[in-house]
Design a protein that fits this description.
heterodimer, A: alpha/beta, Rossmann fold, 2 domains, nine-stranded mixed beta sheet, five-stranded parallel beta sheet, elongated, B: alpha/beta, two-stranded antiparallel sheet, 8 helices, 13 strands, 33% helix, globular
């Protein structure tokens, strides 16, 4: 029977939510052709995660554990996955659109002769059982439907927050695979620094509050952070705010910054240019706070307050805290 | 005090020909061979461009579009030119695309690149990343002695970052993506790269040749100066057609070069319509407006 593989992302021996989202995406395909959904772990050691994977839809669990996979090395990870792909011939390989997967799946595609489409917002199977992917092109300005030629495997990464995990019950059959990994003298990890962040990463955040030109300076971003912290949101910014030097590049949302798709996006003092919308237009709910009634953002939002952000933002933070 | 000391050092240097000689030698590459850097660039629609679907529905209307150098590639070109300024490296700029794409090369040359390679032919249009990796990889192989390949972190038209990595795989060389800092050591032929990773950063050492994609903000890309633009017009740019790519070497038949060698294809493109509820509250009474919005988010949108 044909197999759909789902790459497992873990953090501190726990399965990351993105994996459950991708398992949900795989379930959608399974409804069409009754493939077997297989979770695939590549790394030093997976920990006891099979029960969690089973609960969210994995029927088989391939484990590739090897001490050489302790540090992330795109080339070695590609070797490990390519070898077991060649051995087991899955039809489809899916993973979350994480930085790691973006880093090594292109190598797997080249090595196994596979097609690759990244950052899918939806997936489906054609009547010929080839994979179809919907993904943004030209930033958020257009949605392309991309189909795969009949060359296996077909590989895709799924945008975070695009699918909702489906909880069920099940326990997967565990298969341990071994691969020979030659030493890689070309690539060495010297130091990995985890930098504790005060707020969620923008690309993973469920909610985001962003400030724009209307913030007037960097210090004023404090009221953006206050609102963000009251709802557990990440903090972002428009290009205008970043280019003015008020906040760092890593906060930039838009066509030339980060592309985000949270459930809630609050745009504060952001006019709503095409370029900014291209980076956040797939957010589920958009809220705008701006004093200019003619700002384009008021034509692209679900809720808004037309008023001075320096009055509105603290008041809104208070009201949200009152709701508890 | 400090000023005085540096003045003295300068004087010392000025009057000591031996020291001057030593410092000149230090600035030269040890083997006398210049570092050769290749930058992969892309021409994309301007970020302000209005995107509309074409009549067949599988692409976009290109007639009225202003084309620019992919904004993320500016950081790649700048990084290469900065390394050139430090080491005397040679900088080659490569692109794949239609006739007009040569402008992306010219812009890069005006910023300080030395020469261009333009892979162009109608049969190369609409290739996927798999086919692009093979074609670009094979051309780079034939160039021979590239030490370092630099690219931007993403193409804003394809919304993709996979081509440089597929090129790395074709060439069998290491990669580091999203670099926020790059230090090239010519004597040991290595690059020390600080990369953005999820939740932090990682320092990696790559043996050259290697591919690096750079994060936005790694540098401040310069504007092309007028003399730079004038000079760029005279710099050499090689045009590469299908006949110049050895398809045997990349393991595909000549007629599968280009879109026929691709693994995925775009069936259709649609422009999403904006359907939002547009409930805008007048903010004269800030307290009331905020309270109303908070309630809507809680009870109607069920989002907080």
């Amino acid at each position: 029977m044909s197999e759909i593989w789902v790459l497992v992302d873990t953090a501190q021996d726990k399965v990351r939510n993105v994996t459950y989202e991708v398992l949900a995406a795989a379930s959608k395909l399974k409804e069409k052709n009754s493939s077997t959904i297989c979770a695939v772990f590549i790394g030093e050691s997976s920990g006891a995660i099979e029960a969690d994977l089973g609960k969210y839809g994995a029927e088989k669990f391939y484990k590739i554990e090897n001490p050489a996979l302790k540090d992330f090395n795109p080339s070695l990870y590609a070797t490990a996955l390519s070898e077991i792909i060649k051995k087991n011939n899955p039809d489809i390989v899916l993973g979350g659109n994480t930085l790691k997967n973006q880093d090594y799946l292109p190598r797997v595609a080249s090595r196994t002769g596979a097609g690759l489409a990244i950052d899918a917002i939806d997936i489906d199977l054609s009547s010929e059982s080839t994979l179809q992917v919907k993904r943004y092109k030209y930033s958020g300005k257009s949605i392309a439907t991309v189909s795969f030629h009949d060359v296996k495997p077909m590989i895709a990464t799924i945008r975070l927050n695009a699918f909702k995990p489906i909880e069920g019950s099940g326990s997967p059959e565990v298969i341990s695979e071994t691969v020979d990994l030659p030493a890689d003298d070309n690539y060495k990890v010297i130091e990995t620094k985890i930098i504790p962040k005060e707020r969620p990463e923008l690309t993973e955040a469920d909610k985001i509050v962003s400030g724009g030109r209307g913030m007037a300076n960097g210090d004023n971003f404090k009221i953006v952070y206050d609102l963000a912290d009251s709802i557990g949101a990440g903090a972002g910014a428009s290009r205008a705010a970043v280019d003015s030097g008020w906040v760092p590049y890593e906060m930039q949302v838009g066509q030339t910054g980060k592309v985000v798709s949270p459930n809630l996006y609050v745009a504060v003092g952001i006019s709503g240019s095409v370029q900014h919308y291209a980076g956040m237009g797939s957010s589920k709910v958009i809220v705008a706070i701006n004093k200019d009634p003619d700002a384009p953002i008021f034509q692209k939002c679900d809720y808004g307050i037309c008023g001075d952000l320096f009055d509105v933002l603290p008041a809104l933070t208070d009201e949200i805290k009152k709701l508890g | 005090m400090i000023e005085e000391k540096s003045k003295k050092t300068l004087l010392y240097l000025d009057f000591n020909p031996l020291l001057l000689k030593i410092s000149l030698v230090l600035f030269k590459s040890p083997r006398g061979k210049k570092l050769k850097i290749l930058v992969i660039v892309r021409q994309t629609p301007d970020t302000e461009a209005k995107i509309q679907t074409n009549s067949s529905g599988d692409g976009i209307q290109t007639d009225d579009i202003k084309w620019i150098l992919n904004p993320f590639d500016e950081f790649a070109v700048e990084e290469a030119v900065q390394i050139k300024e430090k080491t005397g490296a040679e900088v080659v700029v490569l692109t794949v695309g239609a006739e007009r794409s040569v402008d992306a090369i010219r812009t890069s040359l005006a910023m300080g690149g030395d020469s261009g390679v333009h892979i162009k032919d109608d049969s190369f249009a609409d290739m996927d990343s798999y086919a692009l990796g093979k074609v670009i990889g094979s051309k780079i192989k034939s160039l021979g002695d590239i030490d370092l390949i630099i690219a931007g972190k993403k193409w804003i038209d394809e919304e993709s970052n996979q081509v440089p990595i597929q090129v790395a795989e074709e060439l069998g060389i290491p990669q580091a993506t999203l670099a926020s800092k790059v230090e090239v050591d010519e004597s040991s032929k290595t690059a020390k790269v600080t990369s953005v990773i999820e939740g932090g950063e990682e320092i990696r050492e790559l043996k050259l040749p290697a591919i690096i994609t750079v994060e936005q903000g790694i540098n401040e890309p310069r504007y092309a100066s007028l003399p730079g633009i004038m000079k760029a017009k005279k710099k050499p740019c090689e045009e590469v057609g299908p006949g110049d790519i050895n398809s045997d070497e990349i393991g595909i038949s000549a007629d599968a070069l280009g879109v026929a060698g691709s693994r995925v294809k775009t069936d259709s493109i649609e422009i999403p319509t904006i359907t939002r509820s547009l409930k805008v509250i007048e903010g004269n009474d800030v307290q009331q407006a905020s309270s109303e919005l908070a309630k809507l988010l809680r009870e109607e949108a069920k989002i907080i």
